[in-house]
Amino acid sequence: MRVNRIGRARSAALGLSLVALAAGATTAAGPAAARPEAAPAAAAPSCSTAFRIEQKLASGTTWRMCWRFESRSGLVLEDVSYQPPGEAAPIKVLNSAKLAQIHVPYDDGKNEFNDVTDYNFGSGLVNLVPGECPGGTIRSVKVPDGDPAHPNVKGLCTTTRSRGHAYRMQADTGDKVYQAQGKDLLVYTVNKVGWYEYMTEWRFQDDGTVNMNVGATGSLSPYDYDAGDGRGWPLGKGAKAYATSHSHNVFWRLDFGLDGSSKGRVEQYDSVVSPPAAGGQGPTNKTTRTNVTKELAGDAKDMRWWRIVSATGKNKDGHARSYELVPGPTAKYPGRAFTKHDVYFTEYNKCEQYASNNPLNCGAGHGKSVDTWVNGQTLTHPVVWVNVGFHHIARDEDQQPMPVHWQGFSIAPRDVTAMNPLTPAALAGQNGHVEPRS
């Protein structure tokens, strides 16, 4: 999928474990009876109107953020806040979020690319046609280091999309169904790098979830074919031309600012299933928490997850607000040290911006990739790096053009609000232990 160096040139750029799972706050009978803990109010987005995105969805949830554009990462979102129905003020979620690398090694070992840093990913922004942004707005972007003849690109779409059921619950009496259809704010761009066209999308759901995805489409490279020795797949008539297989290792960089503070903490949760105890009806499952106090290179496994916890804010039930990392399907690539782990938690350093081949001068002896930045520092302002891999073995259906293949992950609110933020008024009193109806 890459232009060969002899083909069309691409523009190059320069624990604590075994503890209670919830902090012990007593749950009130309903959200109206609980008192929120004091937390810094989320400031209005620190940008001019031209660089502000604000969308109130049909459910009453409002997302606010600023955007800017880099020649490497492309779209960068900053000062991201979420205000669901029932919250008097916006709740800040992220200081910033962006792509931090697209690493593309080929299976034959002949080519390896860092699309974000080596090829000025952002400068490949393309114009969108109205049909690609139905019901939305296409904004003009001044692209740094782009084509001097066309510095402004109509390349940023903001629109809304339906996602299906947000929830469904049948009442005990059976004569009432509570259901709602969810809505998302969708923000996306398309960047062309060689033969690939990358669709970078951010979906902000009305329930507070954020989905981050990269979709690859465009064309298969006409240059990258091998002899059919197991490192490619035959395309076209017979078995003569084998498109070389390759990986896409996509990294995101998230700087959380929950409740307006960067001093969050990281927690890891692991669950262990044990055989049934004597007299028990089934296996037992015990979940433990480990406080991640120092930088960590983490690996996903069954029944393991992480959350980033607010240092200052609590919901109306008195529980600390947090966001949980929800990984998507991945094919981990073991060929490079920086791709050997699924997530990295590092202490904030302004110079550490790209997961591999970081081009910034961070000083003598400072590593160029995220794995080298995990060196035992205490986490007071954690930055989260998420790595999601995809092994692309081409198929006949990839011609022509190639269908989009997606990879990504989500962050989901955990105790950000005291109840489902989309709870209907008739169920607003059912918070905490609700006795079954007789």
What would CATH call the class?
A: Mainly Beta
List low-confidence stretches: 1-40
- Give helix and strand order, one letter per element, not per position: EEEEEHEEEEEEEEEEEEEEEEE
Got a strand count? 22
| CATH topology descriptor | Beta-galactosidase, Chain A, domain 5
| Helical fraction | under 10%
What's the shape?
A: globular
- Number of domain units: 1
Give the spatial strand order of the biggest sheet. Answer: 6-7-8-9-10-22-19-18-15-16
Output mean pLDDT: 89
What is the tally of helical segments?
1
Quaternary structure state of the chains depicted: single chain
Commentary on this structure:
By secondary structure, the chain is an all-beta fold. It has one domain: Beta-galactosidase, Chain A, domain 5, CATH 2.70.98. Helix content is 1%, strand content 44%. The chain is built from one helix and 22 strands. Strands 6-7-8-9-10-22-19-18-15-16 form a ten-stranded antiparallel β-sheet, with no helix packed on it. A hairpin with a 6-residue loop joins strand 4 and strand 5. The termini are far apart. The model is unreliable at 1-40 (pLDDT under 50).
Helices, strands, pairings?
Blueprint: E1 52-56, E2 62-70, E3 74-83, E4 91-105, E5 112-114, H1 115-118, E6 137-142, E7 152-170, E8 177-193, E9 196-205, E10 210-218, E11 225-226, E12 232-235, E13 241-244, E14 246-256, E15 265-274, E16 284-292, E17 296-298, E18 304-314, E19 320-327, E20 343-347, E21 382-392, E22 402-414
Antiparallel strand pairs: 1-2, 2-3, 3-4, 4-5, 4-14, 6-7, 7-8, 8-9, 9-10, 10-22, 11-13, 12-13, 14-21, 15-16, 15-18, 17-20, 18-19, 19-22, 20-21
